[in-house]
Automatic annotation (TrEMBL):
<protein>
    <submittedName>
        <fullName>Membrane protein</fullName>
    </submittedName>
</protein>
<dbReference type="InterPro" id="IPR000572">
    <property type="entry name" value="OxRdtase_Mopterin-bd_dom"/>
</dbReference>
<feature type="compositionally biased region" description="Basic and acidic residues">
    <location>
        <begin position="1"/>
        <end position="16"/>
    </location>
</feature>
<feature type="region of interest" description="Disordered">
    <location>
        <begin position="1"/>
        <end position="38"/>
    </location>
</feature>
<keyword id="KW-0472">Membrane</keyword>
<dbReference type="InterPro" id="IPR036374">
    <property type="entry name" value="OxRdtase_Mopterin-bd_sf"/>
</dbReference>
<dbReference type="Pfam" id="PF00174">
    <property type="entry name" value="Oxidored_molyb"/>
</dbReference>
<feature type="transmembrane region" description="Helical">
    <location>
        <begin position="52"/>
        <end position="79"/>
    </location>
</feature>
<feature type="transmembrane region" description="Helical">
    <location>
        <begin position="118"/>
        <end position="136"/>
    </location>
</feature>
<keyword id="KW-0812">Transmembrane</keyword>
<feature type="domain" description="Oxidoreductase molybdopterin-binding">
    <location>
        <begin position="315"/>
        <end position="450"/>
    </location>
</feature>
<feature type="transmembrane region" description="Helical">
    <location>
        <begin position="185"/>
        <end position="206"/>
    </location>
</feature>
<keyword id="KW-1133">Transmembrane helix</keyword>
<feature type="transmembrane region" description="Helical">
    <location>
        <begin position="157"/>
        <end position="179"/>
    </location>
</feature>
<feature type="transmembrane region" description="Helical">
    <location>
        <begin position="256"/>
        <end position="276"/>
    </location>
</feature>
């Protein structure tokens, strides 16, 4: 590197630069000597990268991730975490500011919110990966931090990218029933969601004006209509996305977007059937519990089998009794329950993994059981299962859920006795409740006065 020299007067005194020249010379020169590899701008040679492509992908994610975030937060509210036993994220504090009493009507609401959350999240995966690819040069900016403001911007970017990867990866693993987490999925997914949402909102607020300006200036039709032969690198600008040494394009931007869109449509087609009863179930190849099980009355999804939950057949035999706790405790055999007034309703079961199905259930209303135990009125119920362990071996149902006439202790499904894997001898069915709150193998119901 050559040294700079000061010009001087003839008498040897340093010449003072003019004001115009002084404005052009930076006060501080930051050394720019990036290590070889991805930290050098010329390493990234794709001619497709640039503000336009990043803006298009970002706009799709802005709408999609907003819906995924809202439906995810609504689905968490469906657990009624303010009830005893239901709070899977203790210490959430202000993060639960929006929680409300989850309704029982319409009965398909949780089916819709959780199905949308899971299926749209899967559908957006190719778009997210394409967006990360489009901005990857910025992740290797050198030097890593030029100033305090730049360091803060880089930290927010780390939270945004890291949060997105964490939420998508843990969500997909949970959908596929790969419970490999060394932590509670529910707590980590909620806390991670709020970190990601905060970074996402800040990032969107800062970048949205530029996205709009880029799309207005360059338009949309020009790049979507350009063939491979017509594809050119975007003009250089200060974003750091445009390659200073672009390679010859091998794909048009239109082709790239079609490839990403095709991947999203494929994921949609391979998962949407898990939330829709009918022929589309055969296409739900990415859903472990989404496909057709058979023509029998009990041939539909089973999340946890009796064997997996440690249920011994003897526990559900003739000696099984339901304990109903209240001012007048009672014990009922299955024959005693079948002798009570029975009611039949077509209600969905929807699980956190995104699958759902509607079946016809027959059983005894929870209000009738509460009245039998002398607990009529506004009462909540704690439901306890025969299953061994697990966070959902006991759950609480709200007074609103108990009072709904469709809430029942189901004994039959589609006209047949429940199978052991579907909860025989009795299970809970509540409209618009997460599937894990529709407890199987019920052994005790504890009716309690509604908590304040």
């Amino acid at each position: 590197m050559s040294e700079s020299r000061e010009s001087t007067h003839d008498d040897g005194e340093p010449r003072q630069p003019s004001k115009a020249r002084r404005r052009r010379v930076p006060a501080i020169r930051i050394p720019d000597n990036p290590p070889p590899g991805p930290f050098r701008p010329e390493f990234w040679r794709s001619p497709l990268r640039g503000p336009w492509l990043t803006s298009v992908l970002g706009l799709v994610l802005l709408g999609g991730i907003t819906v995924v975030a809202i439906t995810g937060l609504l689905s968490y509210a469906a657990y009624n975490p303010w009830l005893p036993l239901n709070d899977l994220t203790p210490g959430k504090g202000l993060l639960g500011f929006y929680l409300f009493d989850w309704p029982t009507s319409p009965s398909w609401l949780y089916r819709l919110t959780q199905g949308t959350h899971v299926i749209l999240g899967l559908t957006l995966l190719p778009v997210l990966l394409a967006k990360l690819w489009s901005v990857i040069p910025k992740l290797f900016t050198w030097p890593p931090a030029r100033s305090l403001a730049h360091a803060l911007e880089r930290a927010s970017l780390l939270l945004l990218v890291g949060g997105a990867i964490f939420e998508f990866v843990t969500g997909i693993l949970n959908i596929q029933l790969f419970y490999v987490f060394p932590f509670s999925f529910y707590s980590a997914h909620l806390y991670g969601a709020w970190i990601f949402i905060a970074a996402f909102v800040v990032h969107a607020a800062i970048k949205l004006p530029r996205v709009v300006g880029t799309l207005r200036a360059r338009g949309v039709r020009h790049d979507l209509g350009a063939s491979l032969a017509e594809t050119r690198p975007e003009p250089p600008d200060d974003t750091g996305l445009v390659s200073p040494d672009p390679a010859t394009p091998t794909m048009s931007r239109r082709g790239l977007l079609a490839f990403v869109g095709g991947g999203s449509l494929a994921l949609f087609g391979l998962s949407v059937g898990q939330s829709i009863d009918g022929p589309l179930r055969r296409t739900a190849l990415l859903a472990p519990h989404g496909r057709i099980y058979g023509p029998g009355p009990n041939d539909f999804q089973v999340n946890k089998t009796a064997a997996a939950m440690g249920i011994a057949p003897a526990e559900t035999g003739d000696g099984w009794r339901l304990e109903v706790q209240g001012p007048r405790p009672v014990r009922l055999s299955r024959a005693g329950l079948l002798a009570m007034p029975l009611h039949t309703y077509a209600l969905p079961i929807a699980c956190v993994e995104g699958w759902s199905t509607q079946q016809e259930w027959t059983g005894v209303r929870l209000t009738d059981l509460a009245r039998l135990a002398g607990a009529a009125g506004a009462v909540e119920v704690v439901v306890r299962s025969l299953q061994k362990g697990g966070v959902f071996s006991r759950v609480s149902l709200s007074a609103q859920q108990v009072a709904d006439p469709r809430s029942m202790l189901a004994l039959r499904v589609n006209g047949a006795d429940l199978s052991l894997d579907h909860g025989y001898p009795a299970r809970i069915i509540v409209p618009n409740a997460p599937g894990v709150h529709c407890t199987k193998w019920v052994r005790r119901l504890e009716f309690l006065r509604e908590s304040a």
